[in-house]
Amino acid sequence: MASHVHTRVLVADDAPQVSRRLTELLSEIEGVHVVGRARDGDEALALFRQLAPDLAVLDLGMPRQSGLEVLREIRQTGLICHVIIVTNHTELALRERCLAEGADGFVHKTTELDALLALVRAHAHRTLGPRG
């Protein structure tokens, strides 16, 4: 019997209720395991380095370091980690900037929650390559 591979997810959002809700929703997806929650960018980076998740869901507007700054740091490590930026902002230029910086997805927290869950489901159901 083959062992079940889990997608290990880090959730980072400075609003505790949003963080809790995202964690609950993501944990309901088969094959997804939320391994850490961060309240700001510095904590997100520390947990990223400690836990080496497969996927990070980052709030764009966190204190200490923004989701975009955390994304840049993650990309500089060379580790394979998919990153989805979540935000309340809808500006197309902001979306394009995050995607250009290496985000794998950019979703609005309230209007695109189904899109976020679909991205995570898709990630959880594909085979990941080796870490960099």
Roughly what percent helix? 40-55%
Q: CATH superfamily name? A: Response regulator
The CATH topology: Rossmann fold
Q: What proportion of the residues form beta strands (DSSP E)? A: 15-25%
Sketch the major β-sheet.
5 strands, parallel
Number of strands: 5
Unreliable segments of 5+ consecutive residues:
127-132
Structural class: alpha/beta
Distance linking N and C termini: 28 Å
Q: What is the top-level CATH class?
A: Alpha Beta
Can you describe what's shown?
With 132 residues, the protein is an alpha/beta fold. It has a single domain (7-124), classed as 3-Layer(aba) Sandwich (Rossmann fold). The chain has 5 helices and 5 strands, in the order E-H-E-H-E-H-E-H-E-H. It has helices spanning 16-27, 41-51, 67-77, 92-100, 113-124, and strands spanning 7-12, 32-38, 55-59, 82-87, 105-108. A 5-stranded parallel sheet has the order 2-1-3-4-5, with helices on both faces. Helix 2 packs parallel to helix 3 (67-77). Mean pLDDT is 88; it is low at 127-132.
Pick out its properties.
alpha/beta, 132 residues, 42% helix, 5 helices, five-stranded parallel sheet, Rossmann fold
